[in-house]
């Protein structure tokens, strides 16, 4: 009986010790999670948007917090939610978070209902790659996922699909300021930006394009070149007219912007070798328009194409301040180039 009693006493002590260990670990985890940020802090202070929907469990929210890089570990979050029953006070909505937050900071936001709207701006002249990078920096999309979807995204019939085009929707993601009041993914943002373009290209503008014997795709392609070539408002309709005259005469457009589009990083001055690139986008070698737009033009560039200036210019060159200088013949153009470059 004594041996049996000793055995039972040992089991009780073991169970008690294990329980104490669990309590100590739980308290330690709680205190650490509440007062310490995780390794994500090294990622900086970029805003990361988290959307909490009605019916989401603490586990679902924890998964999103880890996936978006707000917290490194789901367990710390789960433990604190269970300990405090915080889930009962979670408010649905979009929250502006940061990497490296403590569990306490996250719970404070989720229970206070401190919701926000995600606001982002895409400038005129941004291409799909730049848009993807901007949205990724804002914490709204995965950059590679956005680029992958943009390759085949064709929401409207006037967007022409061609094998040589990098991104099917290039040029048709309208540059604007947008607000998101709920969770959004790459596809929903693509749809929102393309819809913005479709609404802004009004029936009157479509009728004007038809009168000029231009498709919407051709208008946007040409407008994208104008957008990238012109820094100042007054230059846009003149540059558009130069391009129209060159097209009519069968001259190559010789737009540096189409060569820059082929490069991973922009180059201030292109070399003669650069203009020999073997690509349908090389408007020094290939006559006519490039296969498609090279960026998203704003309404000013689109209107410049639909309502170009009336000039006799065939050449233009920009000085270091971005002001364009025009000429009607090549000899005059060369003299201007030597003066401004």
From TrEMBL:
Its EC number is 4.2.2.29. It holds the Pfam family YceG. The keyword Endoplasmic reticulum does not apply. The record marks 229 as: Important for catalytic activity. GO terms for cellular component: plasma membrane. GO terms for molecular function: lytic endotransglycosylase activity. It is an enzyme of class 4 (lyase). It catalyses: a peptidoglycan chain = a peptidoglycan chain with N-acetyl-1,6-anhydromuramyl-[peptide] at the reducing end + a peptidoglycan chain with N-acetylglucosamine at the non-reducing end. Keywords: Cell membrane, Cell wall biogenesis/degradation, Lyase, Membrane, Transmembrane, Transmembrane helix. Functions as a peptidoglycan terminase that cleaves nascent peptidoglycan strands endolytically to terminate their elongation. Belongs to the transglycosylase MltG family. This is Endolytic murein transglycosylase.
């Amino acid at each position: 009986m004594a041996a049996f009693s000793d055995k039972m006493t040992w089991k009780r002590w073991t169970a008690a010790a294990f329980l104490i260990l669990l309590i100590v670990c739980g308290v330690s985890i709680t205190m650490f999670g509440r007062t310490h940020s995780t390794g994500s802090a090294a990622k900086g202070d970029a805003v990361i948007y988290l959307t909490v929907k009605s019916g989401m469990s603490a586990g679902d929210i924890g998964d999103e917090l880890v996936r978006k890089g707000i917290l490194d570990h789901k367990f710390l979050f789960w433990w604190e939610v269970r300990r405090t029953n915080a889930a009962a006070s979670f408010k649905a909505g979009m929250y502006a978070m940061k990497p490296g937050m403590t569990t306490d900071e996250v719970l404070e936001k989720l229970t206070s209902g401190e919701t926000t709207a995600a606001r982002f701006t895409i400038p005129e002249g941004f291409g799909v790659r730049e848009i993807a990078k901007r949205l990724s920096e804002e914490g709204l999309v995965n950059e590679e996922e956005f680029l992958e979807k943009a390759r085949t995204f064709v929401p409207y019939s006037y967007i022409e699909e061609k094998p040589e085009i990098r991104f099917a929707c290039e040029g048709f993601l309208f540059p604007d300021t947008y607000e998101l009041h709920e969770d959004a993914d790459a596809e929903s943002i693509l749809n929102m930006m393309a819809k913005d373009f479709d609404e802004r290209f009004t029936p009157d503008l479509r009728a004007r394009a038809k009168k000029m014997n231009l498709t919407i795709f051709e208008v946007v392609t040409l407008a994208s070149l104008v957008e990238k070539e012109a820094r100042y408002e007054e230059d846009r309709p003149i540059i558009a007219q130069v391009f129209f005259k060159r097209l009519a005469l069968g001259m190559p457009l010789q737009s540096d912007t189409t060569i820059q589009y082929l490069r991973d990083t922009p180059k201030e001055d292109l070399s003669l070798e650069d203009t020999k690139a073997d690509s349908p986008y090389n408007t020094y070698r290939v006559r006519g328009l490039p296969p498609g737009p090279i960026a998203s033009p704003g309404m000013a560039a689109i209107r410049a194409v639909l309502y170009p200036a009336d000039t006799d210019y065939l050449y233009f060159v920009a000085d270091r301040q971005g002001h364009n200088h025009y000429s009607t013949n090549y000899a005059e153009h060369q003299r201007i180039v030597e003066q401004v470059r």
